[in-house]
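Here we describe the complex-level prediction in full. Unlike the single-chain runs in Section 2.1, the two entities below were treated as one system.
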Amino acid sequence: MPIPTVSPELVAKAKAELDKHLLEIIQWHFSPETGCPYWLDWAKKNFDPRKEITKFEDMMKFGHFADESLRDLQPEVWVPAQFKGKPFNIFETGGTTGMPKQRIGWNDYKVDYSEFSEKITDAHFPRGGAWLMMGPTGPRRLRLAIEHLANVRGSSCYFIDLDPRFVKKVISAKQFDVAKSYMEHVVDQAVTILKHRKVSGLFTTPKLLEALAEKINLYDIGIRGVFVGGTSMTPQYVRFLVEELLENKIGFYPTYGNTLMGLAASVPLVPEDNFSITYYAPQPRAVLRVVNPDKTNETVAYGEWGRAELTTLTKEFFMPRFLERDEVIRRAPRPPYAWDGVGDVRPFGAMQKTIVEGVY
Amino acid sequence: MTNIPHLPILRLGRPYESLEHYKVKDHRTGDVKAVVSSVNSGIIKKDLQKISASRAALNKFTVAQLIKMSAKAGDLFLHGTLPLGDKGHTQSPQQYLETLGLTSGLPHVMVRRNMAKVHYALTHLGEILNGLSRGLDLSVLDHGYGEQFGTKLSFCPTTQALGLVMPSNSPAVNSLWLPAIALKTPVIIKPGKEEPWTPYRLIQAFIAAGVPAEAFGFYPTDHEGAGVILKTCGRALIFGDKNTMAQYAHNPAIQLHGPGWSKILIGDDCVEHWRDYLDVMVASISDNGGRSCINASSIVVPKHAAEIAEALAKRLGPVEPTRADDEQARLSGFANVKMAEHIDAQIEDELKTPGAVDVTARHRHGPRKVVFEGGTYLRPTIVLCDTFKHPLAHKEYLFPYASVVQVPQREMLHQIGYSLAVSAITKDAAFIGELQAFPEIERLNLGPVSTMSISWDQPHEGNMFEFLWKRRSIERAW
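The structure predicted for the assembly as a whole is:
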């Protein structure tokens, strides 16, 4: 079976929807009655996007978003006027050393994960069946998002925390025994929960999934669906997870996402994928481009490696052209997504240098 | 069938083609000679959970039967045409020899010698095990107990499997694990990246000789996978450099095969006749291309160091790379060119420390590192060092390299440090007594014996029988 494609008409329709959404978001963030102090101030110093942005291609007029401002500025500068006075969630990313970057939000994560709920099946994540999240909780968007996802499906969720800042720190210091011991501590807690409670859905990271499966048989203990996110996975590693750990019996849902983007779901694997996963951003709320690292206005050809560039377009958060720390293969639109996908995500520069990804 | 063979993972006998591969290339032209599947550590862990079935498959045979099968495997290894990978390719002995030469840089004459060593080990396993077990009736291992030497005997296995993290430098090192099969122990092998050929061919020879395929794991893998093999198998062998050795130095379940720092010592009583021992010194330094851990890397003498160094340099300095099929070939090419560059640069850098001279330089008529027909070679190097404190006095490299150091006889054992093999050329009974009592020498040759000399029934490092089986006391009421 060939890899399914999307008709040019559907691609054009999606592009038109994106442009329409973009104009609405630009209007929102750059109008004094709705926008936030950061972008209103930015417009005064640069240009008025309401006049110059008419379609997504015009976004090249923005430079790359400097995410340091999410670290250096007080969160209040990102509050759109229409949200003023409403307490916000503060979600963090980074922070292994020093101040983390923060994105504030109200409802976006619920929108993303309610939508994602439609992409997972009841067979793998039975409605009402409990979930377990084993991974980075703490100040991360993922913590509330997973609980919301479970709740949307009529389920509750147990949590086991893994602190990725600590893991990165000890691995960078070559304290591998400490990292291993910490991972065992985390996994042992999950095993305890799984042995004493009925759980059918699992969110975790690939490495933790592997470590968990070394201690228990996931299917026998009741797991029917696994939703993973976090580190990169080579096609062979995906095959290992699907065939050896999940034994082709447990549903596998890899996702690509972060605090700034939300959640890019993957299309179900077909044999022709050869276990290479392709993710699609939740367009039009977020757009992923695969750009030439040396000329970031240009996208690379389909099938080529490039750097991931993220634009987030919601009423809560506007972030143009942020260069992710990942390199990916640009993939063609594929049903049900009529826009570009990203494949085989790996840390940017992974072929040139060692990247600390740790256990999460 | 594609032109290039693919070596799959052997998951306890079951071929598995990974989505990740690496290429084994001709060290001169870069032509791909094989594509090798590579797997993550998780697959190895998963398979090792089922290792008891592999052991059970071997347990169906007696040790005597497995010794016979091993002998047959030895003949097949040396003379047979065996399967090569999972795409329908086969490999004759000549093809094995030529391909191994192309990818490892070993000239044919050295590959042939290595093949002969492996063949010998497999076809003389009965004698070797007799030596390793000190004459044990090996049927005791079949029954678990017995009586011999007027006493009750019982042995139990120390492990379910033997893990092997193999090097790429010399095919004969595979001889070390060969007794494991007759000792009913499955092997889990991570081959050297540039030398998958020998372990793969040996496995095929064993299988063709009737040994169950389940007894063999062939896992090209990464550093993490190697760690799993070492830590999970119960007993393992690792080959590596000083740093690798340090990581596992205190783990009795892991047998270390690192640098040998092997040496020739000449006593006061023999040193005036040093010219008589020149052939032994040259052979100890340069046989097998200088790649073995039992190649001499230091010549230690109480006097005449400069003259001895000069004489060695005259013999070895002019040695040049030759075609791989030259019967007189004495140098091996470097499959990993960066390693040759690193070694050459390190020697040059350390020669800047006062107290050492590259005596071979004036006999070489050119640089140490040379390219010949596309291959990179290091030409022999003899360095005369004032003392053992010089950084080049205590070095071991993968080519014919040795330091010559002048040390008073009474000081020798205080200065030489650990030595895998020492050939002590002396008849001085007192000095011999000191040498015999010195614990830092693994194999001691007395007289003009090459350090390269080995005895299969007296291993110079590690006794495979004692590593894989241990004696227990037993009492039976019936």
